[in-house]
Amino acid sequence: MPKKTCRVGLIGTRFMGKAHANAFGQAPRFFDLPQDVKLLSVAGKDVEKTRSFAHRWNIERPMKRWEDLIGDPDIDLVDIATPNFLHRAPALAALAAGKHVVCEKPLAPNLAEARQMKDAARKSKGQTFVWFNYRRCPAVAFAHKLVASGRLGAIRHIRAHYLQSWAGPKTPLLWRFKKKLAGSGAHGDLNAHIVDMARFVSGDEVKVVHGAIAKTFIKEREIPGSKKMGRSNVDDSFLFMAEMKNGATASFEASRLAHGHLNDNHFEINGQLGSLRFSFEDMNVLEIFDARDKKNVAGWRRVLCTDPQEHPWFDAWWPDAHLLGYEHGFTNQVADMMMALAGKKPVVPLPNFDDAYQTQRVLEAAMASAAQGCRVKMSEIK
Q: pTM for the complete prediction?
């Protein structure tokens, strides 16, 4: 009997659109999926660019209006790969139509819109997913499994940073620098990922944000296509401290102005029995410290997480030590989404709209702390 095919409609044709299109095409080639997946349609506001995108990625139905894509009865899963301020409307429409929905992160530019999306998802027949793709790095998923197994004992301390350097004074006033469109700057763009990973790997939740600081260093940027300057009103750098429900302390920092850091997505988790740390710039490696080792042989172990028998998803890819890259996290997520849609268990938990809403609550609490200069309990953020 032929497999059922999940037919996907993609909204957005830029950076994330390319990453998603590649993942939908690659997943059935490498994974033995319980159902097939086909990228059937794509919508983008520029007709010619959308047609060109469709031709490049072998997509049958290019469209200008996302409303037409969602209205197509052949579409099972709607993929939203647009800027933050364009997430809510298509998500709500797709959920109302009973479609499955996968959305880029953060879920929305603000908590109110994220709440609407989360509430709509709870009422819909469709399943929801969010592209927190770093969960799908084998080393990160392996870290999650180690912590869940008790390998580190009680978690005492979490520290995470996500540092980039691309947003210097010569970078123009893109949508990411406008609060109305992005919601926040480095905070929503980068802290969203490390908050999600801290929650995912530790299995714990933020209880209190104890303090935060947000700074905008470059207040004016050149308007694209013009020599005029416009106001940048989002944070360039954002740091906050927190306490987790199970008692661990945590710190998070994000910057898009950190020279020497291209895509430095890093977390470290310190527990009663040991520690582990991960850096995306060396994404196939997880470093582990076992506090039970004798002092004369103690030290960090550099574990290459590429063993097809031991490390998540690698049995679908290459022989041991043949490394994965950025795009593979997206492909691994597509494979897990097809498992979930077929009623089967994914390799590790997938973030849905409710899960992403919990991360958005933490972002909101941190912004409130920075604005008011005070401690903010998560119980205050609804």
A: 0.96
